[in-house]
Design goal:
The protein is of the alpha+beta class. The protein has two helices and four strands. The strands form two sheets. The protein has a two-stranded antiparallel ribbon with strand order 1-2.
């Protein structure tokens, strides 16, 4: 059994004092593998595509086949976050950070 094949979420339910409904929140994924294995993988993928499109629109990077020997590769990773607006809408955000 390999534990990296499993995705876990911590579910916290709390009473909303202004409403009879329950608020449920889940941990955000830590890795791309977790994001793509989650129940809302499609939304995470859309968020990742939006982030890549922003890099391309702002000409923030250029993809190359081969780097010159004098170049340094900057490692990066994805950060995933759910953002909730005041009216309760949830937006999935993915950021590529160095």
């Amino acid at each position: 059994m390999q534990f990296e094949d499993y995705v876990t979420y911590v579910c916290i339910q709390e009473e909303n004092p202004n409403d009879d409904a329950m608020i449920t929140s889940y941990d955000d994924p830590i890795t791309v593998k977790e994001a793509m294995a989650s129940y809302d993988a499609k939304l995470w993928k859309e968020a990742m595509c939006e982030e890549i499109q922003c890099f391309e629109d702002n000409e923030a990077w250029e993809l190359v086949d081969n780097l010159p020997d004098s170049s340094t590769v900057v490692p990066c990773k994805w950060v995933f976050k759910r953002k909730t607006s005041e009216n309760g809408d949830v937006k999935h955000r993915a950021r590529l950070v160095a």
